[in-house]
Amino acid sequence: MSHNPIRSSIRAIAVAAVGVTTALAGGAAAHAGGVSGPAFYVDHELYRTVATPTDLSLTGAPAQAWDTIYSFGAVQRSVATAAPGDPGYNGGRWQVHAVSLTGTYAAALAAGDHDRDGVLDAADEVQAAIAAGALVDDGIVRYFVCTVNPVPHGQA
Which residues constitute the signal peptide according to the record (predicted)? Predict the structure, then answer.
């Protein structure tokens, strides 16, 4: 069988198109909402949520109308700055800040894991790792609304 460059190019384009379609469909499903399992930490406690398919990025709401969720991607679960009952809690209105490692996860833990439990699980720990240069706050990537519910003990 001879090598046909046109056929190979068409095959590569088709494979790429399927990959892009799959990624977009997966992204849409992730933003569609629903009850999550353990999703993020607030003050060393694990919380879950009922995500809603909202995009509040164009509301023009002032900065104080939002609480922050630091999103680590696949590195670890996210960390939020507030939960129901905390002073100034904004009712589940969130601005998501992507954070990235500047080195290793172990270095970020050394800089911020104050309680030495092996995870950054409170906003002050994330902020300490950022201040030490072990993490970078890459800025706001999303504004949305979701509830905050403690994960029942034994379901982590």
Answer: 1-32
Confidence of residue 33 (pLDDT cuts 50, 70, 90): low
- Could you tell me the sign of the dihedral formed by the alpha carbons of 58, 64, 67, 72, in that order? positive
What's the mean pLDDT in 45-67?
86
The model's pTM: 0.75
Domain boundaries, the chain: 1-30, 33-150
What one-letter code names the amino acid at 51?
A: A
Q: Compute how many other C-beta atoms are within 10 angstroms of the C-beta atom of residue 51.
A: 18
Q: What count of Cα atoms within 13 Å lies in the side-chain half-sphere of residue 32?
A: 7
DSSP structural state of residue 98: E
User: How many residues belong to the chain?
Assistant: 156
Scanning 42-134, the segments in alpha helix (DSSP H) are: 105-112, 123-131
Instruction: Please say whether the beta carbons of 82 and 67 come within 8 A.
Output: yes
Report the C-alpha gap between 46 and 154 in whole angstroms: 11
